[in-house]
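Feature request, filed as a ticket because there's no other form

It would be nice if the structure record came with a short human-readable summary line next to the tokens. Right now we just get the raw output. Example of a typical job, pasted below so the devs can see what we mean:
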Amino acid sequence: SSSSSSSSSSLLTIAGFASIFMILLLIVLFGFNGRFPLNLSSQYYDGGPSPSQIERFIAYVDKDRDNRMSAHELAEYFIEVDEKSREVVLDKYWAKQVEQVFEKLGKSENELLSWDEIEGIMRDAQVTHVIENLRKRYDYADADSDGMLNKAELLVLMVPELSDRRAEYFKSFEFHQMDMDSDGLISWDDYWHPNDDVGGGEEGGEHNSITSDDVKHVEEKERRLWANCDRDDDGKLSPEEYFVFATVQWSFHEVSYALNADTNGDQHITKAEILANLDVFTPTLTYHDEL
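Raw output as currently delivered:
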């Protein structure tokens, strides 16, 4: 269904708000339940958004004032939402999680966090399959190379894609992890390893519910975005091209999902189409009001 495709996209794409490493860390420390500060299960699910709320949303997105939202207008909107929500989530959620990690480990305000402490948490929880990659991210987050992390550095370890080192992370660290032959370019095969993120067996958890059809569906959309970002059409992405790819990934998937409401196939969404497809637009309308 459309709904399962959207949730699968969220699980499979790198540009989500939390890496699997940090979700595991929070589960171990706090019994983390996966909820974020923007509550997408709020009042709209009881009765749905009102016609006036839908009209205000369309008026905000509809820049050319033709009473409908084009695919291009939706893309611009979701890019804007992505930027705003990153700031909100970083400030309202992840900064607080950093504080709680330090408190949970008995750290004072100015104490530092060592790799041995993080590795110990993972080993005690028998979550050893992420340790090698997590160590690489730890070393990257350690900006002053003193072998320890302060709170700002731990924030980079947890969510580098939200931090002020975001561009550097995508273009340098993440890109070079995939550029196996060090030629300054990455191919689709370098990038696309869904099983690495989906997981399997006992450690795969909820990700085991993702089917091969879900993976194929996401791969088709990711390949389209890849082609759009490949400016010189050589089939590979440079660091700059990959940064664009990673930056617009979430908004690209959201536009694709929103267009499930486009019942007449004209690449525009009207008020009537939203009303006929509230299951598609209720989370977006809720998110819009909360931001």
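Something like this underneath would help us a lot:
The chain has 14 helices and six strands.
The radius of gyration is 20 Å.
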